[in-house]
Specification:
The protein is an alpha/beta fold and 463 residues long. The protein is built from 14 helices and 15 strands. 37% of the residues lie in helices and 14% in strands. The protein is globular and about 55 Å long.
Length: 463
């Protein structure tokens, strides 16, 4: 248990328990993971910044404490480089912020530190989180640990790879249209995108915006549940966080699951449909499974409109003043929202409301809704965007994310788990969706199929 390899393959909950019992020290855990990063990240490029000095100092403080500081006492974590960390460079994946060092932590980072977590560094992301491949002018591409020629997915690819390759047991991510779920699917790890507001964002400029959410990636459900329990809780400066209600009703012994390969509208590759059909058959051993989906007509156009408006509002000034320094993907995203009118935006919000109500109606008949966690399997890092699926051209570079961004649109919590697969098959995950506030039921069901049906992480074969 004390060798570098075995320590790095332990889960966050196991590490925390071992440190609390005195079976491991924080210093040896941190050192093992720093050595793993030094060994593997040269090839994989999961980290933009590694903070070895401060991590070692924090581990010494943990070991000197008379009792555990919190439930993540001494546990190494990675923070996505879109999220502020006090005294540690936060670049947002952009050369414009190459030397940016925030004075304050984001609240999610504050809560992790208070729980005893030790931040090893900042994980890679496309510029401002916009990109299908996890790369930018500072770092990357972040390579898939199951095949380094392939993408890790955007935009939390750095966190997914860091977890899958054993460089940290737990990593933070953010998810706008699928940014924890797609990398989780590609890298064979688990992820949680909770109900918007469950993890507060008190500095978010648009306080009622529910498209984006903090989340986590890990190698198992227990770690996701622990991380969320630490970081959840209302903050008066985030209006969304004050209205989240827990629904802790137990999962039925044999739950009812609605399954859909595409929500009726999302483009999904034939190979993914086949993999999802196999996963559906496996799920039938633990649940009553029926094909069903909410009415998602117009969802793709709705998300395109709302996303474009938000991006143009947030980054429009940068396009005017620093265009030559921005990546083409960011430029396209900003320009997509430049010509939208208030009427366009409100029509999209009207359709979004109808889709939300259709989701709610479905959940009067089902406990969970399950769909693929990605519309395609990982592709080559040299291909910057998904422009076609099975030879059919996509209208925009974000349409391959429809399978995930439809769920972002309505704000329902999503647990992503790796699906069982053959020895030579690439990773593929499923989304398990529940009504808002039902994370505890997601974790309970996820834990059951993780343990009983093989919806669980398998380590990549890395040197």
């Amino acid at each position: 248990m004390t060798s570098d390899r075995s320590v790095c393959d332990l889960t966050a909950t196991t590490i925390a328990r071992a440190i609390a019992k005195g079976e491991l020290s924080s210093c040896e855990v941190v050192e093992a993971h720093l050595e793993r990063i030094a060994h593997r990240d040269v090839q994989l490029a999961a980290f933009v910044t590694v903070d070895a000095e401060d991590a070692r100092r924090a581990a010494q403080i943990c070991d000197a404490a008379p009792a555990p500081i919190g439930p993540l006492h001494g546990v190494p974590v990675g923070i996505k480089d879109l999220t502020d960390t006090a005294g540690l460079a936060t670049t947002y994946g952009s050369v414009l912020f190459r030397d940016h060092v925030p004075a304050e932590d984001d609240l999610v980072v504050t809560r992790l530190r208070r729980a005893g977590a030790i931040i090893l560094g900042k994980t890679n992301t496309p510029e401002f989180g916009f990109g299908a491949v996890c790369t930018n002018k500072l770092c990357g591409p972040t390579r898939n640990p199951f095949d380094p020629a392939l993408t890790s997915g955007g935009s939390s690819g750095g966190s997914a790879v860091a977890v899958a390759a054993g460089m940290v047991p737990l990593a933070h991510g953010t998810d706008f249209g699928g940014s924890v779920r797609t990398p989780a699917s590609f890298c064979d790890v688990a992820s949680i995108r909770p109900t918007p507001g469950r993890i507060p964002s008190p500095r978010r400029p648009l306080g009622w915006d529910m498209l984006a959410s903090h989340g986590f990636l890990a190698r198992g459900v227990d770690d996701l549940e622990l991380a969320l329990s630490i970081c959840a809780g209302g903050d008066v400066h985030d209006p969304l966080s004050m209205g989240v209600v827990n629904d802790d009703r137990p999962v039925a012994a044999r739950p009812r699951i609605a399954v859909t390969p595409d929500f009726g509208v999302a483009p999904v590759a034939r190979e993914v449909r086949a993999r999802f059909a196999a996963a559906r058959e496996t799920l039938a051993a633990a649940a009553d499974v029926v094909p069903a989906a909410p009415d998602c007509g117009g969802a793709i156009e709705t998300f395109r409109t709302l996303r474009a408006a938000h991006i143009a509002n947030s980054y429009g000034e940068l396009l005017k003043t620093r265009r030559v320094e921005l990546t083409p993907t960011v430029i396209w995203n900003i320009e997509a929202g430049a010509k939208l009118s208030a009427e366009d935006y409100l029509k999209a919000e009207r359709r979004r409301t109808a889709i939300y109500r259709s989701f709610r109606e479905l959940f009067t008949r089902a406990d969970f809704l399950v769909a693929p966690a990605a519309s395609v399997l990982p592709w080559l890092n040299e291909i910057s965007d998904v422009t076609a699926i099975d030879g059919a051209a996509l209208e925009t570079p974000i349409d391959y994310l429809a399978i995930t961004f439809i769920v972002s649109l309505v704000g329902f919590p999503v647990l992503t788990l790796p699906a069982p697969r053959g020895e030579n098959e690439l990773p593929f995950g499923i989304q398990i969706i529940a009504p808002p506030g039902c994370e505890s039921r997601l974790f309970a069901f996820g834990r059951a199929i993780e343990n009983e049906l093989g919806f669980s992480h398998r380590r990549p074969k890395l040197p």
